[in-house]
Each structure stands twice: as C-alpha cells, then as structure tokens.
Amino acid sequence: MDAIHYRRWWTPYLWLLPSVLLMLIFVVFPIGIVFRLSFSEISRAGVVGGFVGLDNFIAAVREAAFPTVMWNTLIWVVSVVGLSTLIGFVVALVLNSEFHGRKLARSIVVFPWATSLVVQASIWNYIIKAEYGNLNSLLLNTGLISHAVNWRSSYQVEFIWECGVGIFVTIPFVAFTVLAGLQSIDGAYYEAATVDGAGFWKKLRHVTLPLVRPSLTISTVLNIIYVFNSFPIIYTITKGAPAHKTDTMVTYLYMLAFYEQQKGPATAMSMIGFILLCVVAGLYMAATMRKEAQ
C-alpha cells in the first residue's frame, strides 16, 4: 500500500518533468544569461568583460531616445491591448450568436491572426503608400478623394498606423479566447435571466461578463506579453524612424544592440522591459483575482 501511495505521489511530477526542463533550458537559463550580461561590460565585438554594476542601466536611461521610447511603448501596449480587447469582445459576441454563414465568418476573422506578422505589416505598408497604395487607389476610384493623400505625413501618423495594424492582427486572438468562454456558459443562466425580465444589457452585465471574466483575464495577460514583445510590425513599417521616434522598447534595444553596437545598454534595456512586464502582468492578475474572490 505504501508503494502504491508513493507511486501516486511522484507520477504527476514525472509527467511534468519534460515541461519543467524545457522551461529551464529555453526560458529560465536565457533570462539568467541576459541578467548576468546586463551587469557586465560588453565590447562592440560582443566580448564579455568584467562586472560594471549599474553602468549599463545608467547608460540606457541616459540615452536621448529613452523617454520617447518608453512613452511609445506605453501608448503601443495600452492602445493595442485595450482596443483589441474591446473590439474582440464585441466580435466574440457576434460570432457566438446564431446566423447564416457563421462558420465562414469565424474562418475569415481568424485569418489575420493566422498570417505572419511580417506579411501583415508588409501588406499594410503597401496599402498606405501615397504613390501607388491600394487605399488611395480605392478612394480615388470611388470619388471619395480628388487627389492622393499622404497617409504617412509625419512620424506621429505612422505610429498611429502601426497601432492600428497591431489592433487589427490582435482582435482574432481576443475574439476566439472570449468565444471559448462564451460557449462554456450554460444556457440556463440566460433562460433564468429572461424569466426575471432581464434585457440584453442586464444579461451582458450580470451574466456574460462575470462568467467570461476568466477568459478575458487570460487573453489580456497574454496580450500584454505578446504586444509588449511585438517586433515585426514596427520594424517592418518604419524601423523606428525617424531617430527612434516610432520605436518601442523591443525594436529600440534591437537597434541599440545591432545597429549602434551598444550591447551593454541593450541588455540592460531588455532587463528593464522584463521587469516592467512582470510587474504589470502580476498587478493585473492580482487585481483580477481579488475581484473574483469578492
């Protein structure tokens, strides 16, 4: 009996061991290396020297582009995550309802998410070209405009376009995560609410939102991580130009490391981003779990 009890005790850990090993090798170990490098001197050739303390962090923070990059990162994450969550939730509600061609609609919605971000960004980069872009061609042919519009007249406008592309490609992920939560809700709840005289908005507030909150929490936390670490959209459309005005932390540290050959400050920037991401995701999860506990 003791042998059976002992086997039941260690069997789950045996099944978890491959996943734990993969996490240690491909996540924890690389993070440890970057952490060590952020406190080390690194030459332009990539040769790692001795311990330099906080010098890399000080150099990164003192970069002229640092405030702009941090502000861009905040706008990028808040706008893309916030608007994609709002729109994705509405799309999920529509896809969860009964209508003709629902399966086709679901297939169309998932397409932007299933396509490579580089391909998506390249397509949108072509669409908004002033000289031969599809957007100007469409508006000119329909008579909505009389002459071609420069959709990239300033770096602020370009950054708005980048945020728009980010929202567009993120909506399907939120929609299908929430849709999975909506389909798990027992219809008896809505029947009881209908009997009590609840309309659409009361059902949404008192039935749908509370029961779909776990799915929203998962999609939001994963979205924060994915969007914060997103590289292809900004790099493909503007490469952070002009002068890092459209960079976020991820594209900026890449430029810092491989274009400007400042590998020490770049590793420090990556650690700053990692810490910020952990703090924000942790605070959001803690706040959400506290609400659910109440």
Explained architecture:
The protein is an all-alpha fold and 294 residues long. The mean pLDDT is 89. It has helices spanning 2-38, 55-61, 66-96, 102-114, 117-127, 134-141, 155-183, 187-195, 200-228, 232-237, 249-258, 263-293, and strands spanning 40-42, 48-51. Helix 2 crosses helix 12 and helix 3 (66-96) runs antiparallel to helix 9. Strand 1 (40-42) and strand 2 form a beta hairpin. A two-stranded antiparallel sheet has the order 1-2. It has a single domain (66-293), classed as MetI-like (MetI-like fold, Orthogonal Bundle), CATH 1.10.3720.10. It has twelve helices and two strands.
Summary of the model, kept short:
The protein is built from 12 helices and 2 strands.
Taking the alpha carbons of the first and last residues, their distance comes to 42 Å
Rg of Cα set: 24 Å
Q: Which parts are unreliable, with pLDDT below 50 for 5 consecutive residues or more?
A: none
Tally the structural domains. Answer: 1
Write down the CATH topology: MetI-like fold
- The fourth-level CATH homologous superfamily is MetI-like
| CATH class bucket | Mainly Alpha
H/I helix tally: 12
Residues in helices, as a percent range: over 70%
Task: Output mean pLDDT.
Answer: 89
Strand order of the largest sheet: 1-2
Anisotropy-based shape: flat
Helix-strand category: mainly alpha
| Major β-sheet profile | 2 strands, antiparallel
